[in-house]
Write a structure and sequence with these properties.
NPC intracellular cholesterol transporter 2; Immunoglobulin-like; about 10% helix; 5-stranded mixed beta sheet
């Protein structure tokens, strides 16, 4: 069951895949990978759902794990995929470990085929030792050629 209503899911897709990427990247030096167009090179996102996350920024409690579900369609064929997650802190992308980076073990039936729709499912664990801080989480899915299938961002606040 989703922690976000339809309106919040739509807001994630429209607000944070569009203008937010431009605004966030405009603040200073960073990887520059996640832009409005980035998700459209090898795939198109239909929906992003982070649960539970009833408000923005998402309040992530230390010691808790959050569900991530991304529905996307692929524009390419790929034998596999790998997820990379970063926390953007002070304009620096800090890698966030996730339990399963292999997209083929995260709900995607591989090989990925052009024109097909997929549901990517994973968890975002928030470790107890993480600092209490506001940041931007960036989630990427990379194809077997190193190209970005999708990329999305969401503002979060880690709390005790």
């Amino acid at each position: 069951q989703s922690g976000l209503g339809t309106e919040h899911r739509a807001a994630l897709v429209t607000e944070f895949l569009g203008p937010a990427c431009r605004v966030i990247r405009g603040h200073g030096p960073s990887s520059g990978k996640c832009t409005v167009q980035a998700g459209s090179k090898d795939g198109s996102i239909t929906e992003v759902n982070v649960s539970p996350c009833p408000t923005q920024p998402c309040l992530l409690q230390k010691g808790t794990s959050y569900s991530v579900n991304v529905t996307f369609s692929s524009k390419i064929d790929s034998q596999g995929s790998k997820a990379k997650v970063y926390g953007e802190i002070l304009h620096v992308d800090v890698p966030f470990p996730i339990p399963e980076p292999d997209g083929c073990k995260s709900g995607i039936q591989c090989p990925i085929e052009k024109g097909h729709s997929y549901s990517y499912l994973n968890k975002l664990p928030v470790k107890s030792e993480y600092p209490s801080i506001k940041l931007i989480v960036q989630w990427e899915l990379i194809d077997d050629q190193g190209q970005m299938i999708f990329c999305w961002k969401i503002p979060v606040q880690i709390t005790s």
